[in-house]
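> example.struct
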């Protein structure tokens, strides 16, 4: 999962400066990233507002998922395929039964500054494009996680 500048900054400040507090939760959502399919093509300076453009319509059944650090176990593993350490989140289920958008990625956001505003810290592209109109019910995001790999 490539980190955007917000994610890199937070990790370094948390580890080296003690300048930030650990967020209480992680927000995860789905979106369309590939510009060839009408996506946003996130990069190092992208923000949560960039994701909003192609995120599924939340006035239907879709909603971002929030997982709490206090209530959820995260598994930290070394991914030999990526050659990076990775924190794996528990499986998340997104109700997309009334959505018709396409998605090809998920994002992770945190409240970095403890100001109740979530900021994009990273994203990961799926291997496939998913047409939500063909999914009757839930889209399950399984074995997703976050590495400290910087975005390009």
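> example.seq
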């Amino acid at each position: 999962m490539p980190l955007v500048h917000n994610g890199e900054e937070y990790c370094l400040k948390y580890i080296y400066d003690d300048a930030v507090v650990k967020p209480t939760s992680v927000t995860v959502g789905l979106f369309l990233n590939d510009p060839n399919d009408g996506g946003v093509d996130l990069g190092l300076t992208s923000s949560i507002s960039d994701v909003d453009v192609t995120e599924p319509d939340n006035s239907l059944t879709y909603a971002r998922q929030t997982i709490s650090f206090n209530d959820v176990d995260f598994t930290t593993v070394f991914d030999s395929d990526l050659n990076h350490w990775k924190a794996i989140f528990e499986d998340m289920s997104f109700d997309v039964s009334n959505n018709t958008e396409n998605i090809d990625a998920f994002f992770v956001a945190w409240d970095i500054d403890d100001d109740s505003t979530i900021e994009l810290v990273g994203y990961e592209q799926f291997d496939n494009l998913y047409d939500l109109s063909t999914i009757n019910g839930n889209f399950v995001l399984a074995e997703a996680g976050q590495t400290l790999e910087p975005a390009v």
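> remarks
The mean pLDDT is 80.
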